[in-house]
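Researcher: Here's a chain I'd like modeled. Treat it as a single chain, no partners, no ligands.
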Amino acid sequence: MKLETALRERSSIRAFRNDPVDEATLEKILDLALTSPSWANTQPYRLALATGPLSETLRGELLEASTSTMPSSEHMMLFEYPPELQARRRATGHGLYAALGIARDDHAGRDAQFRRNFAFFGAPAVAFLFVHEALGAYGVLDAGIFLQSLMLAATAHGLGTCAQASLASYPQIVRRYFDVPDGYTLLCGVAIGVAAEDPVNRFRPGRMGKAELGIEVRSA
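Model: Modeled as a single isolated chain. Structure tokens:
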């Protein structure tokens, strides 16, 4: 797949088929993601990937925690959004719930949809991205570049993904099953699998253009 095609076709998948993901395909995707650039080639991130029985175990424990335990994220997840950013956030949320047929006053429906985050939207594989705290914002930047490479590689190999900050809500659960070195904090999770035929996967929030984002190209 051409890079341009992968960039345009990638989207956040929120309904997956439960078909297992081929291990060889996952290896190819990871190998491609590892070509990502980073600050002084430090590669200040770690990835923990769960498939099969372990992904089911994590799904169950994270779902249970989401109904009974307060989140304890290692990165700030609640923000006071500036007005222009809050407007985009709300528009995306409203559009998503409209695609799902969930009314604005259907609080139970909204809550149920939110809980699906912790079930990885039914994906058979889930990855957890950790970043070294020593490099601050630059480590997070590098991790973001790696994450984009991972998602584009998955798209090129016929898989869907959804990057989820919510999956960093309970790092103590994730750490129980993986050997994560000291100094690394859980940044987000990524659901990986084959996209299901579902209305939610046809939702596209759109992107602002260059002029709206204030992108300038000057020669003098």
